[in-house]
Specification:
Helix Hairpins, mainly alpha
Length: 157
């Protein structure tokens, strides 16, 4: 009977480990999905901001070029040059910030993929424990009784 009790204890341990692994799988999948959707939203917003900032920077650079064209009155050229420099500098700053946000969002998307991979590993652990709990071959062979000789010794030894 002690062998059966040990087998039941072992089976319960595997079932408990399976339940823990399934819970971890669920938690990791949920976190991965949440992280991925937030990262995608951030990436989308950062890309829109990057496009707008690039456009603004280009606008400033075009004003600078117009200020440098021959035939532009000097006062207008000075105004265009000052405005162009200010707009271009503002655009460059916004481009740098938008790229940083985009890179962060892409890193978060990579993290969500890592979370999905961890969830897959947890799922595999849960499946392994479920199989071990039900596997009849995993159960230990019945222990020899106190009166029976060890396997090496016996009839012909």
């Amino acid at each position: 009977m002690p062998g059966e009790a040990d087998e039941l204890i072992l089976k319960m341990q595997h079932l408990e480990a399976e339940a823990r692994a399934q819970e971890e799988t669920r938690r990791l999948e949920e976190r991965g999905r949440s992280l991925k959707s937030r990262a995608q939203q951030m990436a989308w917003a950062a890309q829109i901001e990057l496009d707008a900032a690039t456009s603004r920077q280009r606008e400033g650079e075009e004003k600078i070029e117009r200020a440098k064209t021959p035939g532009t009155p000097p006062l207008d050229a000075a105004d265009l040059l000052a405005q162009g420099k200010q707009i271009a500098a503002e655009g460059r700053t916004r481009v740098v910030k938008a790229r940083a946000r985009l890179n962060y969002a892409l890193d978060q998307m990579d993290e969500s993929e890592r979370q999905e991979l961890e969830a897959l590993h947890a799922s595999a652990r849960a499946e392994t424990h479920a199989q071990l709990a039900e596997d009849p071959l995993f159960a230990k062979a019945p222990a020899p009784g106190p009166a029976s000789p060890p396997e090496d010794e016996g009839e012909g030894a």
